[in-house]
Amino acid sequence: MEAGRGSSAGRKWQQNIEQIPAGRMLDERARTRHTSGMGQTAAHSDSVGNAALERATGKTRDEWNAILADAGAQDWDHPTIATWLVEQHGVDGWWAQGITVGFEQHIGRRQPGQRADGTFEANVSRTLPVSRDAALTAIVDTVTEAAGCEPASVNSTAKNASARWKLPDGRTVVAGVYPSGVKTRVALTMPKLASADELADAKELMRGWLPAAGDVSG
């Protein structure tokens, strides 16, 4: 469903959604998919390319930006935009978050890596040719050794497993494990950074904590 700027359908939808409490903005499927095992909203990786976005959603980043601009989304907050993409266009919750972040960067509302609350979040990932369980074991062992501390929590029961560490300097690192066929993507996130200046160092640090494909089997 395409909602043009000023259309009766667009106005009716905006009126309806303004009455929905913020905590209910994303449907349960989108929330579960997007936050599974993470304890927080996971960042949509800055490295996700236009081709991958088009394969997953049927539209390029520029096309989504145009659709959102035409719908008047520059006047909506982050949850409203993501919810609209899920409910009006059937976009998967994870991709809806990424489209929303890209649009907010496009209109200058946020910088790359910046979250809705104004803090910054660094993300790195690597795809391993191993099973989910082997990837989880590898990322937990690698980060625990490199960080010099045990994980504060490990969720090994969810399909997309996760682990969290509280580093000695007070920063947090979250690992996510995302199986896809015979391969598994492992990702590390460092949230709540105070400025964009911290992003490069955080990414460089976490890249060194990702397991090397040649060192993992299973």
Descriptive report:
Helix 4 (61-71) packs across helix 6 and helix 5 (78-89) crosses helix 6 (93-106). Helix content is 40%, strand content 17%. The model is unreliable at 1-45 (pLDDT under 50). The chain has helices spanning 8-17, 28-35, 50-57, 61-71, 78-89, 93-106, 132-147, 199-207; strands spanning 120-128, 153-155, 162-166, 172-180, 183-193. It has two domains: 8-106, no CATH class; 120-215, Alpha-D-Glucose-1,6-Bisphosphate, Chain A, domain 4 (2-Layer Sandwich). The N and C termini lie far apart (44 Å). It is globular. The chain contains eight helices and five strands; from the N terminus they run H-H-H-H-H-H-E-H-E-E-E-E-H. With 218 residues, it is α+β, with helices and mostly antiparallel strands. A hairpin with a 5-residue loop joins strand 3 (162-166) and strand 4 (172-180). It has a five-stranded antiparallel sheet.
Search tags:
5 strands; globular; alpha+beta; Alpha-D-Glucose-1,6-Bisphosphate, Chain A, domain 4; 218 residues; disordered N terminus; 2 domains
In terms of topology, how is this protein built?
Layout: H1 8-17, H2 28-35, H3 50-57, H4 61-71, H5 78-89, H6 93-106, E1 120-128, H7 132-147, E2 153-155, E3 162-166, E4 172-180, E5 183-193, H8 199-207
Antiparallel strand pairs: 1-5, 2-3, 3-4, 4-5
Helix pairs in contact: 4-6, 5-6
Our estimate of the beta-strand percent is 15-25%
Main sheet, how many strands, which sense, barrel?
A: 5 strands, antiparallel
Give the number of DSSP strands: 5
Oligomeric state of this protein = single chain
Count of discrete structural domains = 2
Order of strands in the sheet with most strands: 1-5-4-3-2
Query: Which residue ranges are poorly predicted, with pLDDT under 50 across at least 5 consecutive positions?
Result: 1-45
